[in-house]
Design goal:
The protein is an alpha/beta fold and about 325 residues long. It has 13 helices and eleven strands. Strands 1, 2, 3, 4, 5, 6, 7, 8, 9, 10 and 11 form an eleven-stranded mixed beta sheet that branches. Strand 1, helix 3 and strand 2 form a beta-alpha-beta unit.
Amino acid sequence: MWRGAGKLLLVTALVLAAATALPAQADLVAAAKREGRLVLYGSLTTLDVVNKIFESRYGIPVDYWRAASTRVLDRVLNETRAGRPQFDVVQTNSSPMMVLREAGAFARYPSPSYEMFGKSTRDPQALVSPQFLVIPIGIVYNTRLVRPEEAPRGLLDLLEPKWKGKVVMADPTLHTTTAQWLMELRSVLGAQWRPFLEQLAGQVGAYVESFIPVADRLVRGEFPVGLTYIRYVYQFGKEGAPLDYVRLPVFLADGHRIALGARASRPNAGKLYIETLLSRAGLLALAQDGDFVSLPGVYPPLRDAEKLRIVAMRDYDEAGLTRAREELGRIFRRR
């Protein structure tokens, strides 16, 4: 684990990336440079470190449009179905990526880098990458409002009367990842699953668009407890945010993938970007910025990260996501 040397190691990763040639053929690099730039749609805040590696190595500017996974899904679907895609590469959560794959948004690209990842998340059609990182979802709290000994010890503790109206979460009728996580909790809670959801709905004080606004509301002290990515404890904490997370027995996690656009205007730059992201330098840079990447023995500088039991969630197709939002809408009615 890296401790106390985050900025130094991140700079080191960038320098190594600039000094070491990536496994890309010279003709691909030359073709990518002729294309001149790259248009990337994605949802990871940490992709900025990969963009720096790519731009410093190849001199190709990245036009990065970032939004919540639900908005990425909607924009790519709309552009694809209208026959006017503006993106070269798309990166977001695994389930939306698989929905977009079925919608014909992506081109086949059997990257050599896919071989370094486990077979379980590889796409046989090579239309999307394997899951190159996973992001655990859990309980995050404001340490100025909640002392560690007062914090929930597990999910069921959120149902205690003292948390009524004090929980902030993304609206599961709008945010696909929250909907997926709540549905997948069945595998963790068993027979307690439905009663937990019904009682949790009564504890929620506010619904927001996605996971980042949950963290924002916690940092501002508007709510003491929220359901969001635990990575924000480190990422917001770098700026002094008073956040910590509950060490759950099991963390359900959201996988992330990347893919080349089926009608990319700059396909060579797109392929080169994918190789950059999935290179060891790219993944190490993501890990140092707080992500759980798919490299054995590599952890983010989040306290106790190496001790967590993390289980990647199943992928949902478009019909599955629709059913999940509809079912959860009957429980988590907006007020």
